[in-house]
Each structure stands twice: as C-alpha cells, then as structure tokens.
Amino acid sequence: MEDSRGKNGSIFARAEEFLQAFKKGAEFTQELLKENEKLRFKVVQLEEESKSLSQATGSDTQKELVKKISRLEEEKRELLDRYREVESENRDFAQRYVEIEEENNNLANLYIASFQLHSTLDFKEVLQIILEIVINLIGAEKFGILLMDEKSRELQSMATEGIDKDDIPIIKPGEGIIGKVSESGEPYFVEEINEEGEINLLHPMVCIPLKIKEHVIGVIVIYKLLQQKKKFVEVDYELFTLLAGHAATAIFSSKLYSESERKLSTIQGFIDLLTK
Fold first, then answer.
1. SS3 174
2. How buried is 130 (Cβ within 10 angstroms: 0-12 exposed, 13-18 middle, 19+ buried)?
3. What number of CA atoms fall less than 13 Å from residue 213's CA on the CB side?
4. What dihedral do alpha carbons 243, 139, 118, 125 form, nearest 10°?
5. Sheet bearing 215-225, strands edge to edge
C-alpha cells in the first residue's frame, strides 16, 4: 500500500512539475508573442517613419536641385549676355580699327600729295604732279587743268589726261558750270556718277577751283572716273580741298619762279651783250 501510494505520489509530483513547467512555457510563449507583436509594430512604425523621412529627403533634394538648376540657368543667361556684349564690342573695335587704318592711309596720301606739290618749282613738273595725284589718289580717267588768263579772265586748258588738251574750249567768265565755279570759287560735284553717254566738255562731273585765299587762278575739271572707281569717298573730298589750296599755291609759285627765271635770263643776256 505504501509503495503504491509512494509511486502515486511520485507520479503526481512529476505531473505537477510538468504542468508547472508547461504553464511557465505557455506564459513564456505568451510573453514572446506579445514581444513579437510589439517588435512587429515597431518595425512597421520604423518603416513608415523611414518612408516618410525618405519622401521628405527626396523632396528637399529635388527642391535643392531645382534651385541649383535655376541658378545655373541664370548664370548661363548672364554669361551669354556678356558674351554678346563682348562680341558686339569686338565688332565695333574691328570696324573702328578699319576706319582708323583707312584714315591713316588717307592722311599718308594727303601728306604725300602735299609734299609732292611743293617738291619742285618747275611749272611743267607741278602740272604733271597734279595729274598723277588726280589719277592715282582720286581715280580719274579723263580730266584737265585749266588756268585763268590774268588779263582776259578766260580759262585755258594747260594739261589734260585721257582727252586732247585742244579739245577743251576756252571758257569765258560765268560761262556754264566751269565759268560759274571760277567766279564763285565754290566747287561743283554731280550728285550721282553716271558713266553712260558721251562726255560733255562743258559739263564736268567735278569742277574744283584752284584758289589762293579768295583769288581763283584756275580749275580742275573731271569728266570720267576709272572703271573701278564707282563713287567718291571722304578722302576724295579732302583731296579736292587740298588741291584747291596747295595745287594753286604750287602752280602760282612755279609760274612766278619760271617768269623770274626767264626775266633773269633775259637780263643776263642783255648784260652779257653790254659787257661784250
């Protein structure tokens, strides 16, 4: 009996221990499930926070990129505007350089023409120099130099290019364009150069008075320009002004010198005759 009771007691004791252990396991399992549920909730929460943070970060980054792109576009526009300004300035500088170079060439030509006019006192050489200036610097093909007779005040042809000297008629004071220019002392220019048709020797395209102060001693008449010369440019008018004064002075001086030389030669001839 005792053994049976002892065995039963032992069985019950083990069963109780097992139940206690099972109960503890069940409680532990419940706690694990609760902790697992908490962890799962935490994971979901963290995922949501991470997603929200990611979206917020992406939005901020996008905004920064948009700002940066806008700033770069603005800098690009400023650089393009500056480039256009510099390009325009370069074109202006290039144009100005061409103009200055042309002005320098014109001044050089004017200086050479002036120097040549006063390089000799020989009347024929002076006339030839004037012809060369009108050909080379103005670009005239047919023209003439007419000088005024001091007594009759008529204009007579003294030197020509492209036409016969005797073909130009003697011009009386006030007669036609040439006569009026010799009276007024004001130059004459046609408004439009027209190379068609025959040349009218009484109607030149250009008539330049040769003046010493206000005294007209002759004129230069231009009837036709060289083929490559299509129009008058600024330097031409400057040359006309130079010729009006310097050519007149050179002609007048050379005439006086020639006349004085001739008179001296005549006087010297008389003296030689007398001394012999």
1. coil
2. buried
3. 1
4. -120
5. 155-161, 140-148, 215-225, 206-212, 188-189
Instruction: Round the CA-based radius of gyration of the chain to a whole number and report it.
Output: 56
Given a contact cutoff of 8 angstroms between Cβ atoms, the answer to whether 195 and 225 are in contact is yes
How would DSSP label each residue in 46-85? HHHHHHHHHHHHHHHHHHHHHHHHHHHHHHHHHHHHHHHH
Q: Are 150 and 182 in contact (CB under 8 A)?
A: no
Q: Where are the alpha helices (DSSP H) in the chain?
A: 2-117, 123-133, 176-184, 234-242, 248-275
How many Cβ atoms are within 10 Å of 4's Cβ, its own excluded?
A: 8
What CATH fold (topology level) applies to the domain 118-266? Beta-Lactamase (3.30.450)
What are the residue ranges spanned by the domains of the chain? 1-89, 118-266
Task: Give, for all 276 residues of the chain, the pLDDT tens digit.
Answer: 445 445 555 655 666 665 666 666 666 667 766 776 776 666 666 666 666 655 655 566 777 888 888 888 888 888 888 888 888 888 888 888 887 887 777 777 778 878 888 888 889 999 999 998 888 888 889 999 999 998 888 999 999 999 999 999 999 988 999 999 999 999 998 877 766 667 888 889 999 999 988 899 999 999 998 887 777 777 778 778 877 888 889 998 988 888 787 777 777 776 767 776
Maximum alpha-carbon separation in the chain: 206
